């Protein structure tokens, strides 16, 4: 299967429009090597013809334009993209659905908890339905679901204590990860852009060939130290990379061909290509996703 990183930054993108933290300043003024990034989303394909979107970011238009495989064929208005798998109901993961309203309709795979927020919380799916047909496919963690041509997925629950902004905050199914398997090769990709506790999902990572994993913050108190927020990374549902129990030391112990951090917040120093934090990540055998990155799994 093929994976295309459409966007690799957390909500707000890199740089973020209202932010002048050190990495945002550096990417704007070019004083340090760094590349701008759009908000996190990937496309996966079994054959490089049909593509499946994992999350629909607010940057979905520019992401489609930047990837010719997703362009409409001559004289048509159809793109090889009609199915979206959602890991959660966050605006960063779902706002792009509204921007796809001109199409012939969308198939949205989401848990009941996510569907509920998208109908009764943000109302986003309700709005979208006024423009185009929406088919909801319930995501049931643990169930194998065929997508196309030997490509299947299995979702798994990702426990989180992040406070829910909408709805009752039912914990189960609020955040899921996806394990996509190419049945022809037996190789699997795990997409896990939000995870607060890796030990809780470790079984799901066994034997996968490629892991795209939450790289939101370098340190737990990153946003507090910069005076940008009052909450730690963990309180926002993201395990930090660095420090005791951080993701870097845990991931470095796993035997996975390729491990790639994705969903980096703009404050994260690993975005600066000459930072010691970036070097530490690479020395542990991990990579940092960038928009346009392609991986054959
Ligand atoms: Zn910033």
From TrEMBL:
<comment type="similarity">
    <text>Belongs to the PqqB family.</text>
</comment>
<feature type="domain" description="Metallo-beta-lactamase">
    <location>
        <begin position="50"/>
        <end position="264"/>
    </location>
</feature>
<keyword id="KW-0884">PQQ biosynthesis</keyword>
<comment type="pathway">
    <text>Cofactor biosynthesis; pyrroloquinoline quinone biosynthesis.</text>
</comment>
<protein>
    <recommendedName>
        <fullName>Coenzyme PQQ synthesis protein B</fullName>
    </recommendedName>
</protein>
<dbReference type="GO" id="GO:0018189">
    <property type="term" value="P:pyrroloquinoline quinone biosynthetic process"/>
</dbReference>
<dbReference type="InterPro" id="IPR011842">
    <property type="entry name" value="PQQ_synth_PqqB"/>
</dbReference>
<dbReference type="InterPro" id="IPR036866">
    <property type="entry name" value="RibonucZ/Hydroxyglut_hydro"/>
</dbReference>
<dbReference type="Pfam" id="PF12706">
    <property type="entry name" value="Lactamase_B_2"/>
</dbReference>
<dbReference type="InterPro" id="IPR001279">
    <property type="entry name" value="Metallo-B-lactamas"/>
</dbReference>
<keyword id="KW-0813">Transport</keyword>
<comment type="function">
    <text>May be involved in the transport of PQQ or its precursor to the periplasm.</text>
</comment>
């Amino acid at each position: 299967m093929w994976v295309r990183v459409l966007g690799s930054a957390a909500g707000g993108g890199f740089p973020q429009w209202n932010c002048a933290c050190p990495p945002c300043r550096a990417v704007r003024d070019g004083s340090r090597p760094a590349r701008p990034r759009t908000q996190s989303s990937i496309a996966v394909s079994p054959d490089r013809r049909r593509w499946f979107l994992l999350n629909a970011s607010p940057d979905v238009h520019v992401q489609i334009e930047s990837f010719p495989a997703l362009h409409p064929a001559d004289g048509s208005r159809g793109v090889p993209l009609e199915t979206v798998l959602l890991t959660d109901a966050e605006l960063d993961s779902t706002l792009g659905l509204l921007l796809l309203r001109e199409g012939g309709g969308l198939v949205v795979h989401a848990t009941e908890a996510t569907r509920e927020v998208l109908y009764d919380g943000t109302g986003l799916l309700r709005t979208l339905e006024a423009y185009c047909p929406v088919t909801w496919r319930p995501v049931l963690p643990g169930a194998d679901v065929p997508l196309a041509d030997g490509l299947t997925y299995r979702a798994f629950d990702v426990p989180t204590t992040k406070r829910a902004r909408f709805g009752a905050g039912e914990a189960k199914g609020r955040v899921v990860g996806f394990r996509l398997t190419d049945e022809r090769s037996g190789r699997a990709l795990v997409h896990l852009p939000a995870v607060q506790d890796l030990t809780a999902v470790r079984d799901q990572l066994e034997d996968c060939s490629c892991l795209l994993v939450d790289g939101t913050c370098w340190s737990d108190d990153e946003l507090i130290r910069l005076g940008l927020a009052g909450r730690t990374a963990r309180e926002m549902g993201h395990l930090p990379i660095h420090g005791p129990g951080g993701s870097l030391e845990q991931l470095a112990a796993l035997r996975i061909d390729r491990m790639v951090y994705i969903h980096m917040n703009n404050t994260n120093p690993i975005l600066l290509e000459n930072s010691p934090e970036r070097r530490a990540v690479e020395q542990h055998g991990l990579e940092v996703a960038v928009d346009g990155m392609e991986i054959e799994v």
